[in-house]
Amino acid sequence: MPAPVAVVDGLHCEDCGQRRVAGARRAMLLVLTLRPILPAMSRKPQPPQPTKTKWHVYKLAAKREWVGEIEAVDEREVIEIAAKEFKQPAKKLMAMQRR
Fold first, then answer.
1. pLDDT given at position 6
2. How many structural domains does the chain have?
3. CA 9 from chain center: how many Å?
């Protein structure tokens, strides 16, 4: 095997046409490739925030009676808000998601 000839960016073997990177350059290359390329890649993705939807609130009696409309994340939250807002007992209220 012929002696390698120094080139600007590493070592080059004249005979086989392959380029060999010097030890220090190879170590630097490994360090650079193990780091995240973009700063945003290091952060974990955040779960999506629950979106508020509109709910119809009904009072349960002999017939169900529409009381109003509330915007909230889930049914339990709707009943709590409606009980306070409409001054009705929570046991007598029912919520249905608006379509």
1. 47
2. 2
3. 41
